[in-house]
């Protein structure tokens, strides 16, 4: 026991010395009714430029109202898994509405995107088969592939030719090609049409995890596929989350009826877990309505993205090439991102440093995210503060 505890301390000290130890920020409150944009942290009000609440829905009164009504009607907990007695009317209706929203036959609700990815890869690939993933895929896709026991190959980021190399080595056994739609730490988009062509040629499943695209990317919020003009039939397995642009919690897989039936029978992270609370499903239903009816949220966000990029690049801030709400500032070293995070906090902004292993070594960054809840004035003040914080800090790739 004693030795084990020492080993933990040693590893924690190593993380601390390498500036890789992570610390949580407690949001003590929110300074603006109905909005998450202003956080209270250690008694100070900060503008939050790190959330995934892209449409500004997490504290929307329609979501909280739907949640309250469902809690009054159905209670807090689901009390069982979906296949026993935990599946309720709110879950069922949300699944039908998600299928309609994504233009697919069926959708299956999961408690989180992490669990959805474990489910999908574990159900569609296994020992003796090959899974081909983008190198920068979300950790849950990678963990799903590892847990499946399949032979995992990771291709160079967003490079369909590199993916083809791994598929063509062993097309017989390639079961699945997987990618984020919008990359979570980079904000760029996968080459979905090329990957779809490759998957079709190899007879493999194509899985697109559009956690950061659905609801927010594309004129109608249809995600990466809408943005790129890719038909839903080209992507047989679509994964979405409800805790990001939809401001709620949970996730789903959308596809043909046979796929959804199969996952319902086989996916262990679906079967062996309690159904998420019905009030949460009710909030997601409300979010889906607001996301579709209030197109101004995407229009306003698009304008803020353009404004942020113009101003930040004008101040010499090293932005990555991203057109989405995820705008990484590539500083390279752990020391530089932590210093920049502190400087921004002093200026009234919460922008969290993202370090390895979340991103590859040497590519630490500030992950700035913009949301429909931000104002032009907040974005302008952020870019001024970023310009100052980045002056004198090392550029991309610095040690
Ligand atoms: C956030 C995220 C997930 C995990 O979703 P949760 O519902 O938060 O568990 C999965 N995939 C991608 C690409 C993500 O960004």
Keywords:
4-stranded mixed beta sheet; 44% helix; globular; binds pyridoxal-5'-phosphate
What does this structure look like?
By secondary structure, this protein is α/β, with parallel strands linked by helices. Helix content is 44%, strand content 16%. The protein has helices at residues 2-17, 61-74, 82-86, 89-102, 113-124, 139-148, 160-169, 192-202, 224-228, 257-266, 268-271, 278-293, 296-314, 334-346, 376-390; strands at 29-30, 38-41, 44-48, 106-110, 130-134, 151-155, 174-180, 205-209, 237-241, 251-255, 326-332, 349-350, 353-354, 364-369. The protein has a 7-stranded mixed beta sheet, with helices on both faces. A 4-stranded mixed beta sheet has the order 1-2-3-12. The longest helix is centred in the last third of the chain and has 19 residues, at 296-314. Pyridoxal-5'-phosphate is lined by residues 112-114, 117, 138, 140, 180, 184, 209, 211-212, 241, 243, 251.
């Amino acid at each position: 026991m004693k030795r084990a505890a020492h080993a933990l301390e040693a590893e924690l000290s190593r993380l601390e010395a390498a500036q890789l130890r992570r610390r949580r920020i407690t949001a003590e409150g929110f300074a603006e009714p109905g909005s998450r944009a202003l956080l209270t942290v250690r008694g100070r009000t900060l503008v939050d430029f790190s959330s995934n609440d892209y449409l500004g829905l997490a504290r929307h009164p329609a979501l909280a109202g739907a949640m309250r009504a469902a809690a009054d009607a159905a209670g807090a907990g689901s009390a069982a898994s979906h296949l026993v007695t935990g599946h309720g009317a709110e879950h069922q209706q949300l699944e039908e509405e998600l299928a309609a929203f994504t233009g697919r036959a069926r959708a299956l609700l999961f408690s989180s995107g992490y669990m959805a990815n474990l489910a999908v890869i574990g159900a569609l690939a296994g020992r003796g088969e090959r899974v081909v993933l983008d190198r920068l895929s979300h950790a849950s896709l990678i963990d799903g592939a590892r847990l499946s026991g399949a032979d995992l190959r990771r291709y160079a980021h967003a490079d369909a030719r590199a993916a083809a190399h791994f598929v063509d080595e062993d097309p017989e056994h390639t079961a699945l090609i997987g990618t984020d739609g919008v990359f979570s730490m980079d904000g760029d988009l996968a080459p979905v049409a090329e990957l779809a062509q490759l998957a079709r040629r190899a007879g493999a499943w194509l899985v697109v995890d559009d956690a950061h695209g659905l609801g927010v990317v594309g004129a109608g919020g249809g995600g990466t596929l809408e943005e790129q003009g890719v038909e839903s039939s080209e992507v047989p397995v679509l994964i979405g989350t409800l805790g990001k642009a939809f401001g709620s919690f949970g996730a789903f897989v959308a596809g043909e009826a046979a796929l959804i039936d199969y996952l319902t029978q086989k996916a262990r992270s679906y079967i062996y877990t309690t159904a998420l609370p019905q009030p949460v499903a009710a909030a997601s239903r409300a979010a889906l309505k607001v996301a579709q009816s209030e197109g101004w949220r995407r229009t306003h966000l698009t304008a803020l993205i353009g404004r942020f990029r113009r101003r930040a690049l004008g101040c010499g801030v090293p932005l990555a090439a991203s057109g989405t709400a995820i705008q990484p500032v590539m500083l390279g070293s752990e020391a530089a991102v932590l210093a920049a995070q502190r400087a921004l906090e002093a200026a009234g902004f919460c922008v969290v440093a993202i370090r390895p292993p979340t991103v590859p070594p040497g590519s630490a960054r500030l992950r700035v995210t913009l949301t429909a809840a931000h104002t032009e004035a907040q974005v302008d003040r952020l870019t001024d503060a970023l310009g100052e914080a980045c002056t004198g800090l090392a550029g991309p790739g610095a040690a």
